[in-house]
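Q: Structure tokens for this one, please.
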Amino acid sequence: MRATCARKDLHHGVQVASRAIAGRSAWPILNNVLIRTEEGHLRLTAFDLELGIECTIPAAIAEEGALTVPARLLAEVLSTLPEADVEISADEQSAVELKCQKSDYNLLGLPADEFRQLPEIPDDRKFTITQGALRDIIKQTILSVSTDESRAILTGVLLELKENEIKFVGADGYRLALRTATVDGAAGEASCIVPRRALDEISRMLDDDDSPVVVSIAESQIKFVVGGIVLVSRLIEGQFPNYERAIPGECERKLTMPTDDLLQRVRRASIVARENANRVIMKTEEDRMIITAESGDVGKAYEELEVVKEGDDIEIAFNSKYLLEFLTVVGSEGIVMELTGPLNSGKMAPVGRDDYTYVLMPMQIV
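A: Here is the predicted structure, written as tokens:
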């Protein structure tokens, strides 16, 4: 094959596709990016058998064909070349030549027919959502995903599609985040667990606008189409826990407070709390909340905040790190915190909205 394209376009395409390469694989072909010609374009693909990313860039095609070359090596060479057109070609022995002005590189590739193609995902179970909405949904649920590989079922986000509604659920045993949204073009019903890595990568590709993302779900794979980029990921196998049982019902106490004011106070108190398992104690007295933290090695923290309280006073302790992560992504001027007792999980949500619920287990008050 032989084609010519802008250095900037080829470099960007290699960078995007190579995000699917997790690390050095024992199979050299999995460290390579596949570049194949199409009419007026080059299609770049990387696939490590768990995650695959494909994108296209404009190019002038002189000779049809395909090649593979180590992705990180190609990206590094392209990053240093001058801003000009690049000619890329491969011979029958899979040797790749890269020419740019007076620079000429020969890189050792592998046969394109050894490259594993991305799996085909049917469109019988799919939905369409805006990039901005999906970015917010991922941001608001991925914070609760477990990092404990021994509990693989919790290292992803549960996605449920039913009629024109989706639910994303993240849980790690200490907290739970549930986000619902209305979608367009829904077809079929589905329930699957999407790995955190796939959601991390797709969120990096999303803009805060109304352009569409098409999501298709198969038995063991999920596909996201964002503009000219396709991301395919293997799903996590297994049964997600019954998350609905972890969400408290009617609570005896309700506190309404400004998000930013609470965020700033918890952030300051967390400086002391991090020396004591990130524990902050929240205690209500009439129309105010007192936030304290204490460490024998550091000292004490004391903060006050005006709240709107319904029900009796309460004293409860939470992990400040988990509180801060929620307050940072909730996206509303105020939050509602519903509490039953010092040993019962707290339920939190943005004021005036029922599409986002965050459940947090308390800590012992010591």
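A few notes: The helical segments are 7-17, 71-80, 131-141, 196-205, 259-273, 320-329. The chain is about 20% helix and 45% strand.
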